[in-house]
């Protein structure tokens, strides 16, 4: 198993190009199941989750060709991949494939809408809570599907086709919004989704579906209206920049100090987190196509944050912000409201000397003047990168084990940080 070794103490200076968003690329790739035409996605990041989803889609009969590869760290956009689901050969998504990744469960929506049936294993993904699928099931049933949960599978059919409905999400869910929006594009009549997720990735998916011929209004607000059409066509769409990767590097600079410009991205996607970073003492300048983050001297100020659905502070940046707060000149409180078990990084940060106590869903972080390098273990995707952020300032050597978690969602992390002066290497097993 690969490890990452960091020698702390270097500031970060330079430019980091941001990749396409994992959490946008995955639903966009799944949307290829909705049409027998070609869907071309640009700016697709090279990540373990993307490769795994390619395998899952391949199992259903989706062909793909990679048309353009990103070469070298500062070259423009990521890969262009053509997906073609001309022949769906199998509507069964088996446990061995789906259990590795949460988003793979989302194939259930397009398969039901286009094929009238699906048998999909209950999903995996980051171990950050129980992560049930009740909202997907209730929503798809509201669209007219029959669904049984049996032997670890959701077995669904809608032989007469899905039918438009009004569905009110009892809780905001990004994944269930993606799935119901995709399913409703081919349902008969109008579907209204209330209390829908407003995440930029939902807007990106809606943009692509509209380019494919779907009729969708209101994506990005809590009410999305979809008028079903009889079929969708191919399209070309560029994956949204990764706002979580952007926020992660911004926090890394705030932690290590220095002056870094993040390109191929947009500050608009993470206003709340940028506000928190400014309060923490980083200078963040928004610019066309990116942002510049500077912290030259001056300490890190303690800032309280509470995670919330978009446009609130993203749960996917909670661990990284906690990493930053371990070195603040005072005490901060970090409250997690989305996932009930997303504090696995606390005990690993403690190995580096962080002082964090947990009470319910709130972590109290007492900033310390010095962190000291130690071996630590990555427990999930964002937790692992919080350890990297802490390692950038820890005295001596920090070794992050189980970096396969990182590879799920960060493209060439060590290369991007090395280019800005960090002392970080991957040690391949
Ligand atoms: C691949 C992807 O895009 N993953 C993101 C997506 O995950 P994901 O789509 O899985 O997250 P959701 O928005 O669905 O989850 C939000 C909350 O709703 C709950 N819930 C969800 C579905 C359901 O049927 N029942 C239910 O109770 C979840 O357990 C959680 O407590 O949004 C999360 C919240 O921004 C992010 O942290 C993940 O990075
Ligand atoms: C939790 C995440 O991913 P997933 O939903 O795929 O587990 C994440 O991207 O931080």
UniProtKB/TrEMBL annotation:
User: Where, in this chain's numbering, is UDP-N-acetyl-alpha-D-glucosamine bound?
Assistant: 102, 131-135, 171-174, 316, 338
Cellular location(s): Cytoplasm
- Return the EC number: 2.5.1.7
> Which positions carry 2-(S-cysteinyl)pyruvic acid O-phosphothioketal?
126
Q: Which SUPFAM superfamilies match?
A: EPT/RTPC-like (SSF55205)
GO molecular function terms noted in the UniProt entry = UDP-N-acetylglucosamine 1-carboxyvinyltransferase activity
Task: Tell me the residue numbers annotated for binding phosphoenolpyruvate.
Answer: 22-23
> Per its UniProt record, what CDD domains does this chain match?
UdpNAET (cd01555)
Q: In which pathway does it act?
A: Cell wall biogenesis; peptidoglycan biosynthesis
Keyword Cell cycle tagged: yes
Catalytic residues in the record: 126 (proton donor)
State the reactions this protein catalyses.
Answer: phosphoenolpyruvate + UDP-N-acetyl-alpha-D-glucosamine = UDP-N-acetyl-3-O-(1-carboxyvinyl)-alpha-D-glucosamine + phosphate
Residue ranges annotated for the Enolpyruvate transferase domain, each copy included: 7-417
Record's family?
Belongs to the EPSP synthase family. MurA subfamily.
User: What function does this protein fulfil?
Assistant: Cell wall formation. Adds enolpyruvyl to UDP-N-acetylglucosamine.
State the HAMAP family in the record: MurA (MF_00111)
- Protein name per Swiss-Prot or TrEMBL: UDP-N-acetylglucosamine 1-carboxyvinyltransferase
The species this protein was found in: Fulvimarina uroteuthidis
The root-end lineage is: Bacteria, Pseudomonadati, Pseudomonadota, Alphaproteobacteria, Hyphomicrobiales
> Quick one: which gene encodes this?
murA
């Amino acid at each position: 198993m690969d490890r990452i070794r960091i020698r702390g103490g270097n500031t970060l200076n330079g430019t980091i190009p941001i990749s396409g968003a994992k959490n946008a690329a995955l639903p966009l790739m799944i949307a290829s199941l909705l049409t027998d035409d070609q869907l071309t996605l640009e700016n697709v990041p090279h990540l373990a989750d993307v490769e795994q989803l390619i395998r899952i889609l391949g199992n259903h009969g989706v062909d793909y060709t990679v048309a353009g590869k990103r070469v070298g760290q500062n070259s423009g956009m990521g890969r262009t991949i053509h997906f073609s689901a001309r022949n769906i050969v199998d509507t069964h998504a088996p446990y061995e494939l789906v259990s590795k990744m949460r988003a793979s469960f989302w194939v259930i929506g397009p398969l039901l809408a286009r094929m009238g049936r699906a048998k999909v294993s209950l999903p995996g993904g980051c171990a950050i809570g129980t992560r049930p699928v009740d909202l997907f099931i209730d929503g798809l049933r509201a669209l007219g599907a029959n669904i049984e949960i049996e032997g670890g599978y959701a077995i669904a059919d809608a032989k007469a086709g899905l039918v438009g409905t009004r569905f009110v999400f009892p809780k905001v869910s990004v994944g269930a919004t993606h799935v119901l929006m995709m399913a409703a594009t081919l349902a008969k009549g109008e579907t209204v989704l209330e209390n829908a997720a407003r995440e930029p990735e939902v807007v990106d998916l809606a943009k692509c579906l509209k380019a494919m011929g779907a009729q969708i209004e209101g994506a990005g607000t809590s009410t999305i209206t979809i008028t079903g059409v009889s079929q969708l066509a191919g399209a070309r769409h560029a994956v949204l920049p990764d706002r979580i990767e952007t926020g992660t590097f911004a926090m890394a600079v705030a932690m290590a100090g220095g002056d870094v410009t993040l390109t191929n991205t947009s500050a608009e996607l993470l206003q709340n987190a940028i506000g928190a970073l400014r309060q923490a003492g980083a200078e963040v300048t928004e610019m066309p196509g990116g942002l510049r983050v500077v912290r030259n001297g001056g300490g890190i100020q303690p800032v309280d944050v509470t995670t919330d659905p978009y446009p609130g502070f993203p749960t996917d940046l909670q661990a990284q912000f906690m990493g930053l707060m371990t070195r603040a000149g005072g005490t901060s409180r970090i409250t997690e409201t989305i996932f009930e078990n997303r504090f696995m990084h606390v005990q690993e940060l403690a190995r580096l000397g962080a002082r964090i106590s947990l009470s319910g869903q709130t972590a109290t972080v007492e900033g310390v003047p010095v962190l000291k390098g130690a071996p630590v273990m990555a427990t999930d995707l964002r937790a692992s990168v919080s350890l990297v952020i802490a390692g950038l300032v820890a005295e001596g050597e920090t070794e992050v084990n189980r970096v396969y978690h990182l590879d799920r969602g960060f493209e060439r992390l060590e290369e991007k940080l090395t280019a800005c002066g960090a002392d970080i290497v991957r040690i391949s097993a």
